[in-house]
């Protein structure tokens, strides 16, 4: 399968691929999460209390899955389902490729020396750790924000979520990624010194 993506055309496909889900997310976000009278009315008091701002003076996109009467706001729910399916499909691709890579690597490593096999295992470990970084610092912290409106509606409570803590997790991600890679490189340098 990898042969299909060789050459300049294949490289362009791989470079353009990350823009596809991001672009889809942005388009659906723009289409389904536009502010309307209901969302402005629902968020007006919250904005006034927390930020001392009139909501109509702020650029905003709002996702409120339920109306005051408990009926479903289908546009917002559609966006949520599309966003979750985009993320889920990418995790399925990651898991599939990771498992396939692990199986192929296990077979191929038997042909190499022990030292070369250990080095390849370290690279695989680095890849796994760097794949977990975005999950731990971006996806998992955002999940409660996405699911909270449903839970609060079920228990009939109002909510006000301050998202400052989320920015802390997002800010931790770049150093984590670098530090994780440096630790793997440090492990490689220990192996090289032993040789």
Please characterize this protein's 3D structure.
The structure is a single chain. The chain has a domain of 84 residues. It is 75% helix and 0% strand. It is built from six helices and no strands.
Total count of strands: 0
Question: Which percent bin holds the helix content?
Answer: over 70%
C-alpha end-to-end distance:
36 Å
Mean of residue pLDDT? 80
How much strand content do the residues show? under 5%
Largest sheet: none
Question: Notable features of this structure?
Answer:
75% helix; 0% strand; 195 residues; mainly alpha
What topology does this entry show?
Layout lengths: L6 H10 L2 H14 L4 H15 L22 H36 L4 H41 L9 H31 L1
Helix pairs in contact: 2-4, 4-5, 5-6
Quick recap of the structure?
The chain has 195 residues and is mostly helical. It contains 6 helices and no strands.
């Amino acid at each position: 399968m990898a042969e299909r993506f060789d050459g300049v055309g294949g490289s362009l496909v791989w470079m353009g691929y990350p823009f596809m889900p991001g672009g889809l997310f942005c388009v659906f976000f723009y289409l389904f999460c536009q502010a309307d009278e209901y969302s402005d009315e629902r968020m007006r008091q919250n904005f006034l209390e927390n930020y001392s701002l009139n909501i109509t003076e702020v650029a905003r996109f709002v996702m409120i899955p339920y109306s005051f009467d408990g009926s479903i706001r289908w546009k917002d729910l559609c966006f949520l389902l599309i966003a979750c399916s985009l993320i889920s499909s990418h995790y399925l691709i990651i898991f599939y490729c990771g498992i396939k890579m692990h199986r192929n690597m296990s077979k191929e490593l038997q042909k190499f020396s022990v030292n070369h096999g250990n080095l390849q295992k370290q690279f695989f470990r680095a890849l796994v750790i760097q794949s977990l970084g975005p999950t731990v610092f971006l996806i998992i912290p955002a999940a409660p924000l996405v699911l909270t409106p449903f839970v609060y509606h079920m228990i009939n409570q109002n909510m006000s979520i301050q998202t400052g803590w989320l920015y802390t997790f997002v800010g931790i991600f770049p150093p984590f990624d670098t530090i994780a890679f440096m630790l793997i490189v440090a492990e490689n340098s220990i192996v090289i010194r032993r040789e």
